[in-house]
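Hello Y.,

Per our agreement to keep a running log of every chain we model this quarter, I'm adding this entry. I've kept the format consistent with earlier entries: sequence first, then predicted structure.
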Amino acid sequence: MNDEQRQRIKILRFQGLGYKQIAKETGLSRDSVRGYCKRNGLDGYGNELFEEYKKTIEREFVNILCLNCGAELEQNKVGRKRKYCSKSCKNEWDNTHRKEYKFICEYCGREFKSLGTSKRKYCDNDCYTRDRFWRKEDAAEVAAKILEFKKVNNLPVWLKELLLSDSES
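Predicted structure for the entry above:
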């Protein structure tokens, strides 16, 4: 078996062909093709080898293109592989692929979504301001509605806790 036949066996094997078909193509016996494949890690089903080869090629192809714009990248020989062609491409990718978090507002109790940060407490600035600075006014407003037997739309969380702690003691 010469180098040209060895190369041809590898190519045909990665295309998903079986030992018998490769033997017909190269003019070698099926057993010599099978022996060569086993010695060089090309054994198993041809289809599985083909799928594995496709995955490695796709991984290599993805690593040489910018994730954002698709421009070709020059990889350094040492260190981590580059994913973006420039800092602006990385920033653009980060802005368009943010992680979404779901929270419940500490003031009004509504569910809200936040992009990029996992430490928000309030759904908007109005809830923050009312919770931080208008506690006496809120308590008076809620008390007046309760005395008039009217529905209280937004009962702040801190007031719920205060009412529940007073009723328990």
